[in-house]
Amino acid sequence: MQAALVGVTGYAGMILYQLLKNHPNVEQVHIYDHKISKNAPLSEVAPIFKNDSSVVAPYDPTTIMGADDVVFFATSSGVTSQLSAPYLEKHFPVIDLSGDMRLKTEQAYEKWYHKHSAPTAALQAATYGLAEFDSVKDATYVANPGCYATATLLGLAPLVQKHLINVKSIIVDAKSGTSGAGKKLSASTHFTEANDNLQIYKPNHHQHIPEIVQELQKWDSNVTTLQFMTTLIPVTRGIMSTIYAQVNPGVDEQTLLAAFHDTYDDQPFINFTGTDLPTIKQVVGTNNCDIGIAYNPETRFVMVDSVIDNMLKGAAGQAVQNLNALFGFSKTAGLNLQPALI
Ligand SMILES: NC(=O)C1=CN([C@@H]2O[C@H](COP(=O)(O)OP(=O)(O)OC[C@H]3O[C@@H](n4cnc5c(N)ncnc54)[C@H](OP(=O)(O)O)[C@@H]3O)[C@@H](O)[C@H]2O)C=CC1
Ligand SMILES: CC(=O)N[C@@H](CCC(=O)OP(=O)(O)O)C(=O)O
Fold it and tell me: Which sequence ranges form a coiled-coil region, renumbered to this chain (predicted)?
C-alpha cells in the first residue's frame, strides 16, 4: 500500500515515518508538508533524515487522495479540525494522531482545547481508536487516542468493564516525559525548568479528561467525571499513569488479578505483570503498555501502574495498530520493537 504522512517535522511524525518505512505492508511513504510550495528533499525539510533520499511534496488533499491509500496526520491540534472535510466527504481513510476529532461535540472540543472545532457532524463521523477495544475495521476517519488517555484507559479497562470498582472514587496521577509536549520549546519544557524538577500542569483542565470520560462511559454509564492530574517529569520519553480506585464489596486481590489476566492475556502489546510494578524504562522503545497492580485490603483501594512510551503506544505505534486493523494486516505488523534496556 501507499501511505501519506503529514507532520514529519514533528516528534510523533518522525517516529511514525520510521515505523511506516519498516512496515511490511507499506510499499511507499509519501510525505507532504504545509510549508513548501514545490517538491523538496526530505533531508532539507527534516534534517534528522539527512541520509534519506525521499522527496517531500506540498500538502494537497487531491494529490493525496489520488496517489495514496491512507493519510496519517501527525499535526498540532487545531490543524485537522480545518483539514478533515475533503477526506470525510470522499470517505478516504485517515489516521489522525491529534486530539481534533476525538471528542464528539464542538462545545466539548472548544471548551477543552480552546481552539475552533470541526463541525459536530464531522466529529460524529470519526471513530475513536483505542486499539485494544475499539474496532476501526469499518471506519474511515480514525481519531488516534491521546497519550495519557491511552495509559489511563488501558489501566482502568478491566476494572470498569467488569464493574469491580466504585467509579466515583477514581483518582489518576499521571506523569509524562517532555517529548509529550512536542518539539516547540516552552517555559516549562526548557531544560533548566524540566531538569531536576517535577511540575504539575493543567490541574483539573487537561484536555484528555473528557476523552477518558467519553471512553469510560462506553463501558459504564455511571462514569460522569474524573479526578485527573498531570506532572511533567525529567525524562525524554514515557508516561506512567498511577490510578487509584476503591474496590466494590466482595472484590479481593485474586478477583483483580484474574480480571486483568482475562482482559489482557491474549493482547500482544499489553503485559500484565501482576503485583510486579512496571517502570517507564521497560516500555520505552516499544509499543507495549505494561500494567501492574497493588491492592490494599485495609483501605480497599487498588493502585494500578500503567506505563507506555508516549511516542509509540501513545502516538505513532498505536497509529500503526489502527492501520493494521483498518486494512486487515497482522496485528503486530511493523511493531516488532525492542526496549532500549538502559
Ligand atoms: N508527542 C506525543 O507524545 C503525542 C502527541 N500527540 C499529538 O500528535 C500531534 C503531533 O504531536 P507532536 O509530534 O508531539 O507535535 P510537534 O509540535 O512536535 O509537531 C507538530 C507537527 O505538525 C505540523 N504542523 C503544524 N501546523 C501545521 C499545519 N497548519 N498544517 C500541516 N502541518 C502542521 C508541524 O510542522 P512544522 O513545525 O514544520 O510547521 C509538525 O510537523 C499533536 O496533535 C499531538 O497532540 C498525541 C499523542 C502523544
Ligand atoms: C508533556 C505534555 O505536555 N504532554 C501533552 C500531551 C498531550 C497531547 O499530545 O495532546 P493531544 O493529543 O490531546 O493534542 C499535554 O499534556 O498536553
Answer: none
Find the residues whose C-beta lies inside 6 A of ligand 2. 77, 98-99, 146-147, 176, 180-181, 207-208, 230, 232
Are the CB atoms for 278 and 290 separated by under 8 Å? yes
- The CATH number that applies at residue 90 is 3.40.50.720
Is the CB of residue 157 less than 8 Å from the CB of residue 164?
no
CB of 9 shorter than 6 A to ligand 1: yes
ipTM confidence: 0.98
| pTM value surpassing 0.95 | yes
Contact of 309 with 150, CB cutoff 8 Å: no
Residues 11 and 100 in one domain: yes
The pLDDT value recorded for residue 269 is 98
CB of 207 sitting under 6 A from ligand 1: no
Question: Is residue 333 situated within a structural domain?
Answer: no
- Which of 147, 209, 323, 325 is catalytic? The answer is 147
Please count the other Cβ atoms lying within 10 Å of the Cβ belonging to residue 195. 9
pLDDT at 113 over 90: yes
For ligand 2, the distance from its centroid to the CA atom of residue 77, given in whole angstroms, is: 9
Residue 336 is assigned to a structural domain of this protein: no
The reply to whether 298 and 188 lie within a common domain is yes
Residues 170 and 88 in one domain: no
Q: What is the CATH number of the domain that holds 214?
A: 3.30.360.10
pLDDT of 342 above 90: no
Q: What is the pLDDT of residue 102?
A: 98
Report helix angle 106-113 to 208-219, nearest 10.
140
Q: What is the mean pLDDT of the chain?
A: 97
Residue 103, C-beta contacts closer than 8 angstroms, at least 6 positions apart: 109, 112, 123, 210, 211, 214
Exposure on the CB side of residue 220, measured as CA atoms within 13 A: 20
Which residues 6+ apart lie within 8 Å of 185 measured at CB? Answer: none
Let me know if 147 is a catalytic residue: yes
Could you tell me if 113 and 180 lie in one domain?
A: no
